[in-house]
Amino acid sequence: MYNSLIEALAKLLNVKSLVTIALTIGFIVMATRGDLTNEFTSVYLVVISFYFGTQYQKTLEEAKNARIR
Questions:
Q1: pLDDT at residue number 69
Q2: Distance separating alpha carbons of residues 56 and 42, to the nearest angstrom
């Protein structure tokens, strides 16, 4: 249990994840203040789409590799 928690935290602390988390915090702050701009929203959606798209692709590849073995 402890090792899996440490492993999950280690995976979370890569650059892609940190950028996504920072942008999400910025999005929440700006939305709360009512300061959201169309440009920031567009950039945020592109980054979030890229992040989850790469995660999805990685999951597909891992499933494919598991079936091959």
A1: 64
A2: 21
